[in-house]
Amino acid sequence: MTIELLFRGDAYSKVATARVVAIHERGIELDRTIFYPQGGGQVGDTGVLLRENGERVVIADTRKGDGIDGVLHVPVTAMPQPEVGETLTLEIDWERRYKLMRLHTALHVMSCVVVAPVTGGNIAPDKGRLDFDIDMSLLDADKIERETNLLIARGVETETVWITDEELDARPELVKTMSVQPPRGAGRVRLLKIPGIDLQPCGGTHVKNIAEIGGIRVIKIRSEGRRNRRVEIVLA
How far apart, in whole angstroms, are the C-alpha atoms of residue 143 and residue 225? Predict the structure, then answer.
């Protein structure tokens, strides 16, 4: 079954309607969704599914389901269950999502300041981080913060670009992350383009203009193993 991933076309969609196609122990499947499932280092969305009778099904997490585009909406324990075929109104926790969008986009910008292979990353509502394979002596918090904020201040519009699997294979330099490879098999791969700054595969949610990030602060740099140097940031 093909699921319409509305967040791919418009990360700013806060409300939508969808039909329930399956319910099982792992969660609720819909025919379309604005909820982003955990992946690529970004945590899954939370929010509510509203039934026509007024009941609210609180969604505590969103995870990937079966297939390339499967999405599972995980309700809080003891929530009322909708029925297969029922039409629901979807509402994401927008304040939380927007923080994730700003931090995720900020990490893209920061990855162009710290020029090194990325060995890991995570985006939560309160902070984000990237791990780099780089010598600790080359990481300076004030310099990273200053140069990242200078790039953010350019106010560049972001773009979504699609390329084929074969085109990505021919341009391996586009893949900065060593720990997470972009998904293949669907015939095309989604890239985030920040003109003049960054271009790399990413399926996450991002702001339309990097000025929306508003600036970042580097709160910690530490060693996390032989090849991992972690840089943690928060929104300024």
Answer: 23
Burial grade of 132 (CB within 10 A; 0-12, 13-18, 19 or more):
buried
Nearest C-alpha neighbor of 59 from the set 87, 83, 93: 93
Domain 13-92 matching CATH 2.40.30.130: the answer reads: yes
The answer to whether domain 97-235 has CATH 3.30.980.10 is yes
**Cα–Cα dist 210/157, whole Å:** 6
Distance CA 25, CA 3 (A): 19
Closest among 162, 156, 166 to 201, alpha carbons compared: 162
Phi-psi region of 187 (alpha: psi -120 to 50; beta: other; left: phi over 0): left
- 40 Cα distance to chain centroid: 6
Is the overall model pTM greater than 0.90, yes or no? yes
Q: What is the rounded CA–CA span in Å between residue 197 and residue 152?
A: 10
- Residue 75 CB neighbours (<10 A): 19
157 Cα distance to chain centroid: 17
**Domain residue spans in the chain?**
13-92, 97-235
Q: What is the pLDDT of residues 27-82, one digit of tens each?
A: 999 999 999 999 989 999 999 999 999 999 999 999 999 877 889 999 998 888 89
